[in-house]
Amino acid sequence: MIKTPICDLLGIEKPVFQGGMAWIADASLASAVSEAGGLGIISAMNANAEWLRGQIQELRSKTDKPFGVNIMLQSPFADEVAQLVVDEKVPVVVTGAGDPRKYMKQWIAADIKVIPVVAQVALARMVERAGATAVVAEGGESGGHVGETTTMALVPQVVDAVKIPVIAAGGIADGRGVAAAFMLGAVGVQVGTRFLVATECNVSDEYKQRILKANDISTIVTGRKYGGAVRCLKTPFSRRFAKAEREGASQDELNAMGAGSLRKAAVDGNYEEGSFMAGQIAGMVKEPQTAAQIVDDLMSGAEEVLKGATKWVK
Ligand code: TUI
Questions:
Q1: Is the CB of 74 under 6 A from ligand 1?
Q2: Can you say whether the dihedral through the CA atoms of 191, 197, 201, 207 is positive or negative?
Q3: Choosing a second label site near 157 at 20 to 30 A (CA), which of 64, 102, 116, 149?
Q4: Ligand 1 neighbourhood includes 228 CB (under 6 angstroms)
Q5: Phi/psi at 136 (nearest 5 deg)?
Q6: 97 Cα to the center of ligand 1, angstroms
């Protein structure tokens, strides 16, 4: 069995966070991951507080275990969902796509554990000073909105820069990745792409099939030019987007092209027009499983790798 400091801090059994994937990470997936002993996370994405309240209630009807809410800081509803997590006494808030410090005082005063996702050392330092419980250091192998630095390079630099626990994310989908994250100094992992094919994940079947068929070179990053870099599968939509970018489309034109594209992939399963956000590790995801099987496989796989970790040491 593997126990790390993040397990005691959050009251979870296994140091596995499920990524707060917009349009995908709902009460069904998050409750299954929490029930399996990890930290299930509902994505507040671009939804309003009323929608999020319904999801939190649904999760609580399915599990008594700790869970998180991911607040995407670019959401037009960020202010109201930031208040809702206080009203609902959500145990853990994970933030993404921005600097969460303007909300942190109110969350900490409400006894919420705040775990920002960071893609660079500077923000990790700033949120530690503002009272963060831990940080997720997310490398550019991840799906969705990404920074530049890879997990391998980012995690140890964040570990060296802060005293709070570090959770590694980006390019982790099996026990080897979990073990490697521990070797870099992380005390937990956040996994997104592998949970896309979980039985309890309500993403469209088209999305699941595209993940299962992916290989090592199936993803690209678009949107780098205007600071909104997004990693997704190579599809008709992402190729059109990349071409428009190369040909000098303006930020407004690109924003208009991207609007609603994640919903089209996640909800409608529209292969032509959807943005199928996924990490580089998609090529390793070959089997639909329950969330519990995924969590167990990640941890038992890590245990096996770690037990053999000294084999080259003489
Ligand atoms: O947030 C993510 N991944 C996401 S969010 C998302 S929804 C979306 N769709 C289109 C455009 C933008 C968002 C899909 N995937 N991961 C966590 C993450 N956070 N990655 C990178 C960052 C980040 C970036 C800049 C965190 C902080 C930050 O700070 C900049 C600042 O404001 O100081």
A1: yes
A2: positive
A3: 102
A4: yes
A5: -100, 120
A6: 2
120, two tokens: 């660079």
From 114, 118, 128, 145, the mutation candidate for ligand 1 (largest count of ligand atoms within 8 A of CB) is 145
**117 within ligand 1 shell (Cβ under 6 A):** yes
- Please give the sequence-ordered ranges of beta strands (E in DSSP) within 123-246, or none if there are none: 135-138, 144-145, 166-169, 188-191, 219-222, 230-233
C-alpha of residue 35 to centroid of ligand 1, in Å: 27
167 contacts 135 by C-beta, under 8 angstroms = yes
Q: Is 96 in the pocket of ligand 1 (CB under 6 A)?
A: yes
**What is the arithmetic mean of pLDDT over 256-284?**
97
Whole-number pLDDT of residue 147: 96
DSSP output for 60-107: HHH--S-EEEEEETTSTTHHHHHHHHHHTT-SEEEEESS--HHHHHHH
Side-by-side strand order, sheet with 135-138: 16-18, 188-191, 166-169, 135-138, 113-118, 92-96, 67-72, 40-43
Residue nearest to atom 8 of ligand 1 (CA): 145
Please give the Cα distance from 237 to 228 (Å, whole number).
Answer: 16
Tokens 């923000």 correspond to what residue?
Answer: 123
CB-CB contact of 218 with 232 (8 Å): no
For the chain, give the percent of residues with pLDDT over 70: 100
Q: Would you say the CB of residue 257 lies under 6 angstroms from ligand 1?
A: no
Token pair for residue 68?
A: 């998180």
CA–centroid distance, residue 145 to ligand 1 (Å): 5
